[in-house]
Structure formats: C-alpha cells, structure tokens
Task: inverse folding
DNA sequence: TTATTAAGCGAGC
DNA sequence: GCTCGCTTAATAA
C-alpha cells in the first residue's frame, strides 16, 4: 500500500494505491505533501478546472460485492459535464425498483472524483449526499459547468 | 432467518 | 411546498 498526500483546491487529499490500482481517496484536514504520483497530478488538474479523463485509471475493487462494483462501474460511464439520477443508475443495471439501494452503494464509494458519484443527484436537481459533504459536491458540479 | 440500514422517488394533499 | 409509503441487497444478530 502506497500513500501519497497532496494539496488541492478543496484541501489536502490522501491517495492510497495498491498493486491492483487506486484503493481509496480521502480528504484530510492537515498534512504535508509527500511526493507525487501521476494520478495525484490528474486529480489536482481536474480540481483546478481542467477536463481530465479518469476512465483508464485502474481501481482496486477489493471489498466490494459484485453488484456494488457493477453500480460503481456504471457511474464511471457518466460523461464529464453531465448528471444522472439514482433511478437512472438502477435501471441501467437492471434494478427496476431497487434504486434506493444505489444510495447505499455510493455511500460505500472509497474513491470520489475518480468514480464521479458527485454526478448522481436527485431527479429534481437537489443534491443528495456526498462522502466529503454537500459543499464539495456542489463545487465539483459547478466545476463541470452544471448549474443547479 | 429476521431485523436493520442507505446519499431516492412519486403520489397526494 | 410538505408528508407518506415503498424497494432492494448487504450486513449483523
């Protein structure tokens, strides 16, 4: 497990990487930058407003159930600058009425930004919740040009 | 096997 | 605007 701490427009971020890929991204209050990593640089550029493609970054899925992984992989397919509802995700993966479970799965997401779960909001355009708080979610959506 | 849980949604007032 | 009822899979007891 490799750990990189770097500074971004939303604060210090801790990036955890295993042999299989990105394991987790965490927001921390204080810290000192501890070197760099290509993925850390991509996240930093993204948070500064640049359009970055995270699709090719490998993710360490260990700990997720098959269905949870399916949900998160579907969320990754949502293109930059667009948003989807929780029920859209549910229908896409074949849960006709079980979309309430989607919220549960997204709350388990260890890698915000890389898996853009901030692009999943209420149908009426209210924000749902977010691992790092609604303020960060709003920041990310406005960054991509989505008005609420 | 049962109870609890989670970041939603639409109907009806 | 607000309240209410509901679905699903995962986890714990």
Result:
């Amino acid at each position: 497990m490799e750990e990189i701490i770097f500074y971004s427009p939303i604060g210090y971020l801790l990036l955890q990487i295993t042999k299989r890929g990105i394991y987790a991204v965490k927001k921390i209050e204080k810290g000192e930058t501890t070197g760099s990593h290509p993925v850390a640089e991509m996240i930093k550029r993204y948070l500064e407003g640049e359009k970055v493609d995270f699709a090719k970054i490998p993710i360490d899925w260990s700990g997720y159930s098959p269905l949870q992984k399916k949900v998160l992989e579907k969320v990754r397919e949502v293109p930059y600058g667009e948003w989807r509802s929780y029920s859209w995700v549910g229908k896409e993966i074949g849960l006709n009425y079980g979309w309430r479970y989607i919220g549960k799965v997204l709350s388990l997401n260890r890698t915000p930004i890389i898996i853009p779960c901030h692009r999943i909001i209420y149908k009426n355009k209210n924000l749902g919740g977010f691992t790092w708080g609604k303020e960060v979610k709003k920041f990310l959506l406005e960054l991509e040009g989505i008005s609420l």
Notes: The longest strand of chain A covers residues 11-18. The CA atoms of residues 74 and 110 of chain A lie 15 Å apart. The radius of gyration of chain A is 15 Å. Strands of chain A lie at 2-8, 11-18, 21-28, 84-85, 120-121.
